[in-house]
Every structure is written in structure tokens, then in C-alpha cells.
Structure prediction request, 106 residues.
Amino acid sequence: MDAIVSYTFNLAARVGENPVAGYAKDGGKSVKTTDGKDKNRMPVSTAEYSPCGWKAWLNGTTITVGMNNIFDLDQPFAAGSLENGYDESTIDIKGRFWYLALKKKF
Prediction:
């Protein structure tokens, strides 16, 4: 008997909007200047940067834990096998072993 457990962290993006100093909420509409006149200005950058921290590093990460031959049983004898006395296509001679995998998408 073999077992595998896998979990992928897909953290939701932040919902709130951070205001940019000197720009209107709607991005390119009229902006009040210090002289009181309305001017139509576009923001310098509309790029959205992801926040730093452990949540940013964890987002898109998959952790996998598994174990083969959980009960550590000996492989059954197979008379039809020529070399080792067991079916090498379905059984591994190692016995029970566990593994851990970590995968990160950028």
C-alpha cells in the first residue's frame, strides 16, 4: 500500500486599494493642483507590486509527502521472474520509504 498527500498554497490577492499620493482615485481624471486648476494627468506607473513577506513566498508552493510500502511487507515470490524472484515492474526491493517534495511556481 502506498500513500501520497499534497497541498498547494493559493493565497488570495489583497482586496484593498492603496491610494497613491497626488493622484485621483480613478487614475487619469482631473487632479487638483496647488494653484487650484484642474489638470488631466496620467499616473506614472500603473504596475501592481506583490507584497513581500512569508505569504508572498508561500503563494504558489506545493508540498508533497508520501510513503511507499507502508506496512513494510516483503515482496511476493514470482516463479515466472527470471532474475530476482519478484516482479520488478510492480515491487521495489527497497522496502518502506518516505519522501518529501517541495515545488514553487514563480
